[in-house]
Amino acid sequence: MKNRTLLWIWAALAAVAWLAPALLPTPAAQAEFPDKSATTLHYSIDAALDAKTHQIEAKGALRWRNDSPVEVAEMRLHLYLNAFKNELSSFMRESSGSHRGHTFDKAAPGWITLTSFKRKGGKELLPADEKDYEFVHEDDGNVDDQTVIRIPLQQAIPGEAEAEFELTWTCKMPRVFARTGQGGNGAFFMVAQWFPKPGVWEDDPEKPEGSWGWNCHQFHGSSEFYADYGSYDVLLTVPKRFEEKVGASGQRVDMNDSQTEHLGRRNEDGSITYRHKVDHVHDFSWVCGEDFKVIPETFAGGAGVDEEEQARVAKILGVEPKALDLPEVTVYFLLQPEHEDQLERHKRAVFNALTYMGFYYGPYPYPTLTVVDPDHRGRDAGGMEYPTLITGGTRYVRAEKQTSPEGVLVHEFGHQHFYGLLGSNEFRHAWMDEGMCTFATGKVLTKAYDGYSAAQWYGGLPHYGERPFAFAGLAAESRKAVPFAGSLFDDSWQVPFGSLSVVRSIAGAFGAQHPPESISLWASYGEVSPLAFLREVPTLTHLRLPPTSTKEYERSRNADTPMSDPVAGRRAWEYMNRRAYGNNSYRRTASSLRTLEGYLGEAVMLKAMRHYCATWRFKHPRPTDFYASIAATAKAEGKGDIAWLMDELFESATTFDFGVESVSAHPVPTLPAQPKGEVAKADDASKEEKPKIFESNVIVRRYGGVRMPIDVRLRFEDGSVREFLWDRKDDLYEFAVTLDSETGAWVRGALGEKPLVTHETALSRVTPARGEQQRWARIRIRSEKKVRSAEIDPTYAYSLDADRTNDGRSTEPRRGAALQLALRALGWVELSNSFYGGL
Amino acid sequence: MGDRMDPGMETPLNVLAETEAPAPAPTRRRAGAAPAKPRKRGRDKAAGAPTSRGPLGAGLAYVGASWRVLLFVVGVQLLLGLTVIVPFYSAASERLDHHPHASSLAGSPTAYDGTLSAWAEGGLNAGIWRDLKREEASLFKGLGVTFFWVAIVAWLFGALAAGGFLGTAVSGEDPVRVGAFLTHGARLYGPMLRVGLCFALAYYLVARLVLEAWGGSVASTEFMDSSEAAGFWGARLREGVVVICFFWLRMAADLARTRMALLGTRGAVGAFLRGLGGALRPRVWLAALAFGLPTYGLLLCLGLGAQELTGDDPWVLVGLFLVFQIAVFLRWAGRAAVLAAFAKLS
């Protein structure tokens, strides 16, 4: 009887374990929106652009719902264009007026002035004098920052109630800087962060429960945005020259004017008005440019561009492939005429992103997507995401073997998921959108492209390969090599005795009407003189590296940045510096997620991410929500409790670097077998000699602070391998390994249940664990064969590793790789020297 | 040209040399050593001989006669190169040679490498390469500085080589021996170096004028053009002009050197200014192109071959080393030929 009860319990547990994955929420397979009535904001805007003054006059009607049980006595609105009003804003102070290599033009600032704000049919809520406006600067106490305004309400908004406001404002677009503004003196407008946008009224997770308040941060140099989901209905009036040259969030609505095919309305003054509507988004932006080529393309949906992948993912998720069918999307490409030949590259990138991210994170639900290629006069508008509208960025000449512009397009599209559909707080948890999006971008690029080939650009054209080490030529290098002459060089020029003021004078003398603020000596970023091509003969001397995978590229870029902060737990402007913000928010998060994937396995990670995305779609997830979501799937899939892992990967500022310190083997002296009382003869001893026994010692090290279970593979001189798991507690477990005779590959079997015992005959872990202080383990093996090499993480599962050159060690050096490298470098130096010798 | 001049060589070049050029410094001999025997060199064999050969023939003949010198020059370049590369190799070797997948990194993956996807393809993994550079960052930074100063030495050596080539070409050495090459190089070192400085200064001014003054004056216009293409092609145009000016100035410098070697004059600036005009003569730039283009073409062809040389087979590595030394030989052979052709043209 007792046995039968145990049997039932066992059967029930087995059934639960088997069904557990199926019990998790089914991944969203269709493009479903939540109930519109649940939306917090409803914003109607009527805006008119004056392209000459670069100003926009707008009026709006805002319906806002208080989703809390407490009343709201004041409104807080983002006025982000004021970040570009002068150099005193927090954005400018933190960024030093520089963004992605572009500088703020003081002569062409931008601003937004709220001219009226009142309850519908009510009195003006703004002070009569603009000087009395109450700007909030709780983040840094910068009294000069005007990017958040507080407007006390005469009548508080009760809990769960709606309020309607009427407002008017004027904004002036700066010369394009930090993703917004105008370029070409009014030829191109990227209109973003252009309207007063309410902050998020929420229960602050960093305060005791029930602490409702405004989450409405100032605009910072290292942060993006956070807002409530809402619906937008926007009328955009633009000058005639922008007819059919406008793109905006959402879908264009017919203005019932039969004269135009583009659904716009021609006004009496010649201007054109377009109407765009979109629901379930948390921002609205638009763009117009007189040179745009507007090219609509249809993403047919279904299996997208890859039926095979659809079937594979469906199998992992345990659904029919049909359940992963993607909805149709009309994609509007707004390209510059000189980039029109790159349409196919743009299209392929966006369609790949729609497909694979649709499979991995759920379908893109909106019927339209606008892809903007910014005017070269407003290049800093590129590489940005807004709901249903993204900006890419390309150049006149692009290398075929480099994923540019593809990388930026896929990345910005990825934000439609990690920012758009999952509305995390970009101020407080930048990694949750940027990092996850970088991870997702890598998945798409890996799937759809061969990798990234390094190239050197000579005279505007790419040459694939890499110089053995940095040397840009005598003139450029002289500033490093001649210390006392450093002050004679201009950093931005890389030319001795270069001085921008001198150049401006010369340019002025030659009749330049607008001597440039900056000139690139060679045409653009990363290019070098064509004479360098003659000097170094790159086809002969440059290193030809195989294309780099996105995973590897990001791993090494992450490793290049010194460890300073944890990924999570920092506001965007609180990292040590902007580099630390950038690395933690983008690359380290992506590498952490890949490491998580390496630990969980690709299938479990896919399910976990799908689960997270489905659970938090159209909501505001926080780090704890992400951890819980992943942990739930991991547990259901038999991976146990992974809270420690999330802590290591996201909450700790520790370096991940495992390696092999040393490998050695020596024969073990053995005494010949000798019967008692007999004196052994030398000849007898040699006849009965035992097989030689070798003792191999392998020391594996934890160079960094992250403690994770890691695989160690030993390869013996006869080609056989043994694999071990060095776990977090410094115990060693052995995997069963068999040779697949067909493929010749070593196949790993089950992991031993018990840790290997110290001083065991075959293998011993001779160092007792010392808890957190333990940094290494010794594997000692006595065997008839010597260990030839040892390597950690042989399948390269963990892409957080800071240094892969120490991942393995062999007892027998092979000189080929270093010699080849050195020989090419030698040729490079010799040929360059020969060139200089000929001058 | 002193005791080495063939009495039969009555070319305008040699007439000039005999009448105007100062006598070369006497070659030093060891005390008690027998006077050097006049070398056997027939009229037909003299590299700079006034035969029916044109400048191209003279250039080729000179290269044929000076192979020892060219090997010497290659040796010097190798020595200079090793100064930079030995520390580089030492660091790379420490990190790569003991790697369990060193064969794959060298481009010839073993069957074992093939069982792990990360190593199956072979070739220097870009991530490993970046790790190497990061972990040895201070060394790599230092290499750039070392390279700079070694390049300066190479430039200084270039003046010696130019003097050696021109001196031996003018005197009609055949075969051209290293001793004579160095003797002439030392004798003409000052003028050659001064011309090199003239060239450097002139190129620097031209480059700044074109790229900065011209580029600066049109930068705003190009930037404000609706198409990015305007800036792109504008930059290409200026780069093209700089490249053409570079070759023009370089030919002018070589003509100046030739003139100074022939006439024994010491005024580098004047010679360089004369050279500016001379370099516009079609025969001059055609001669330069006739050697320059094939030389560079051969280097590119060698490049195609070198890219195929991968793996850790010792013969592959020897082959790679030889390819680069051949490339250096070709580059200097081209230079020697141009100088000999210019000597003939002058």
If you had to describe this structure to a student in words, what would you say it looks like?
The complex is a heterodimer of chains A (839) and B (346). By secondary structure, chain A is α+β, with helices and mostly antiparallel strands. Among the domains of chain A are: 455-541, no CATH class; 658-671 and 687-806, no CATH class. Helix content of chain A is 26%, strand content 26%. In chain A, strands 1, 2, 6, 9, 15, 17, 18 and 19 form an 8-stranded mixed β-sheet that branches. Chain A has a 6-stranded antiparallel β-sheet with strand order 36-35-34-33-39-40, with no helix packed on it. Chain A has a 5-stranded mixed β-sheet with strand order 21-22-23-25-24, with helices on one face. The longest helix of chain A has 23 residues, at 578-600. The termini of chain A are far apart. Mean pLDDT of chain A is 88; it is low at 20-30, 489-498 and 513-526. Chain B is mostly helical and 346 residues long. Chain B has a domain at 190-280. In chain B, 75% of the residues lie in helices and 0% in strands. Chain B has helices spanning 12-20, 55-65, 67-96, 102-105, 111-114, 117-120, 126-135, 137-171, 178-187, 189-224, 228-263, 268-278, 282-308, 314-345. In chain B, α10 (189-224) packs across α12 and α11 packs across α12 (268-278). Classes of the chains: A alpha+beta (839), B mainly alpha (346). The interface between A and B is large, with 116 and 118 residues.
